[in-house]
Amino acid sequence: MVTVEKVLNDIEKNQMAPVYLVLGEEQVNAEKIKQKLIANFPEEEREFNIGIYDMEEVTLSTALADAMSVPFFGEKRIVFINRPYFLTGEAKKVKLEHDLDELIAYVNDPEPTTVLVLMAPYAKLDERKKVVKQIKQKAVVVDNSPLTEMAVRKHLSAELAQKGYTIDPRALEILLQRTNANLTAIANELPKLLLVAEDKQITVNEVSAMVSRSLEQNVFDLVELVLQKDTAKALELYRDLLQQKEEPLKINAILEGQFRLLLQVEILQKHGYAQGNIASTLKVHPYRVKLALQKTRVFKRQDLKNAYLGLIHIEERLKTTTQEPELLFQLFMLNFAQKAVVV
Description:
Strand content: 5-15%
CATH topology of the largest domain: Rossmann fold
Helix content: 55-70%
Pfam families: DNA_pol3_delta, DNA_pol3_delta_C
Structural class: alpha/beta
Order of helices and strands: HEHHEHEHEHEHEHHEHHHHHHHH
EC number: 2.7.7.7
CATH class of the largest domain: Alpha Beta
Number of domains: 3
Catalytic activity: DNA(n) + a 2'-deoxyribonucleoside 5'-triphosphate = DNA(n+1) + diphosphate
CATH architecture of the largest domain: 3-Layer(aba) Sandwich
Radius of gyration: 24 Å
Number of helices: 17
Largest sheet: 5 strands, parallel
CATH superfamily of the largest domain: P-loop containing nucleotide triphosphate hydrolases
Keywords: DNA replication, DNA-directed DNA polymerase, Nucleotidyltransferase, Transferase
Protein name: DNA polymerase III subunit delta
């Protein structure tokens, strides 16, 4: 794999490969690569020599036919193949037939005047598939996985400095928490913050007011209250989520996922795994692992296990009975606070 920076530098020097696979979920960097490639074409050529195809809407054959066409009034053409889900193990309800042998043939003998870019916004591909093996052998594979927290901080600092803005350190921490240190999420929030920032300084109040808390963030707070065995506050937050029309099963599923992650992180840490190794092993964002490690240093494994088992019990009851979700959660909290294993 090569880095995003390496590819951007190569494109800047007009050293483009015939086939790229941009693999990973960081939308900001994927868009940078796309725009850098497009910028290499004179404006008058772009309409005729740039093709963008979504594999959930058009066939692979259509995109490859374009890739095999000669440039029109230019020396190069570029074809983007977006969301090539057929490279993953994911099943899609898409009524399209994609000829993967055609793609294999193309990457083994690409059109010299075309740059073909497979934009794969996925954490991983199905390595067992012949088409994946062939692409990884023949294409330039770009590592577009989510950036580490440190890299996100560095990127944000550089972007703000370039625009002449600063951010209060406490405001930065809130922004990272509410976006899970996800660069794409931060990029979506930044224009609003720049708009309201007085004297080009982003404050705590502005971040708190402008960056909304996601369901996941609220559930993260709920996890904290559960582990602290603060029944009253946990119930209050749970009621608030229900009043916001959040589905009880969805709330419970996210809670389960959080406690499962805490258990996995705690176990891997005990086996000597470092933060980065844990993130890559579990295939989760490093910032989530960092927050999980902070909790596992304070709370015991048995508490994590008890909570996880209790939430599985709630899920079963939600699916098989007509009991009120709030009552089920209240019983769970009372049992958990008394250190009883709920099974």
